[in-house]
Specification:
By secondary structure, this protein is α/β, with parallel strands linked by helices. It contains ten helices and nine strands.
């Protein structure tokens, strides 16, 4: 009897111990499954900690704001590259809302004096920044055809006039075109044709309007900034022409031509008619609604700085508030 009782007692005790152990295991397992989630929440920063909420105060816009930021473009920007990969650089003086655009060197080494004139204007404005009123930005593209300039004078940037003056007429003519042998002033979208005319020659206008990277770079710059007026230098005739595409020049282009010509001492013409010009840049500007003029220097050597300085200052004064 005593042995039987002890046996029953031990079995009951063992069962109780086993149940308690199972309960303890279950409780421990429950807490173990919860512990990693608790630790992760404690140790890992939340999204708010990684990326603080943007400051939307009046003094500083939120980082994700789509409002445009009014920033100066700096002293110069590369607006594109030529066929041979040479940069086309625009120089900016002033930060006013009204932009006036001046372009030289569209015919590269053939009209190298127009590039030197543009560089003279850059140097003058660097030394005399107050010549640009506060509400004006002057942008100057001195060499719109860097490949053509390099063909003649050996560089696509600044050069000595002595080097250029030593070149033959054949070397100058070879530098009129870009590296695809296209006359860039026949590659714009005003009366464009694949074959254009220059004096008594047939020249290439490119595969289509703006097929050439140089013309396309100028187009994209114009599209992005919409200057109030443009002056483009060529050589050589000693005359100023207003722009027009498919009709008479706008009154604004005529006024711009008269303003520049009167101050500079050049005569004005109504329309260049020595031969038919197709794909002209200045006429395309007129098509875009931008007053523009062609200023033809008197020869292929002189920059006629004093005349063009006076023309420049008159135009700036006319557009300043």
């Amino acid at each position: 009897m005593h042995l039987a009782y002890n046996s029953t007692y031990m079995n009951t005790k063992n069962i109780i111990i086993a149940v308690v152990v199972l309960v303890l295991i279950a409780i421990a397992g429950f807490f173990l499954t919860k512990l990693p989630a608790t630790n992760t929440a404690i140790n890992t920063p939340t999204n708010d900690e990684v990326t603080p909420s943007p400051d939307t105060s009046e003094n500083e816009p939120a980082p994700d704001s789509e409002e445009p930021v009014d920033e100066a473009r700096g002293d110069e920007t590369v607006i594109g590259t030529s066929v041979d990969g040479n940069p086309i650089t625009a120089y900016h003086i002033g930060t006013g809302e009204t932009e006036l655009l001046f372009i030289g060197g569209i015919h590269g080494g053939y009209s190298w004096n127009t590039a030197l004139l543009a560089y003279e204007l850059i140097d003058y404005l660097d030394a005399n920044p107050k010549a640009v009123p506060e509400d004006i930005t002057v942008t100057i593209i001195p060499v719109a055809n860097p490949d053509g300039l390099k063909e003649t004078v050996g560089t696509f940037g600044r050069f000595s006039p002595t080097v250029a003056l030593a070149k033959t007429d054949a070397a100058r003519i070879a530098g009129r075109f870009n590296a695809n042998n296209v006359d860039l002033n026949r590659n714009f979208d005003c009366d464009w044709q694949a074959s254009g005319t220059w004096q008594n020659r047939t020249v290439s206008g490119g595969a289509k309007a703006f097929s050439e990277p140089e013309a396309d770079a100028i187009k994209k710059y114009i599209d992005a900034h919409t200057p109030a007026a443009a002056v483009v230098w060529f050589s050589a005739e000693g005359k100023v022409y207003p722009s027009a595409c498919g009709g008479a020049p706008s009154s604004d282009s005529v006024a711009l031509a008269n303003t520049f010509a009167k101050a500079a001492g050049y005569p004005t013409g109504t329309e260049f008619d020595a031969y038919t010009i197709t794909g002209d840049m200045v006429n395309w500007l007129a098509k875009e609604g931008i007053p523009a003029i062609s200023v033809l220097l008197t020869d292929h050597q002189s920059t006629e700085w004093s005349k063009n300085q006076a023309g420049f200052e008159a135009v700036v004064a006319a557009y300043a508030n």
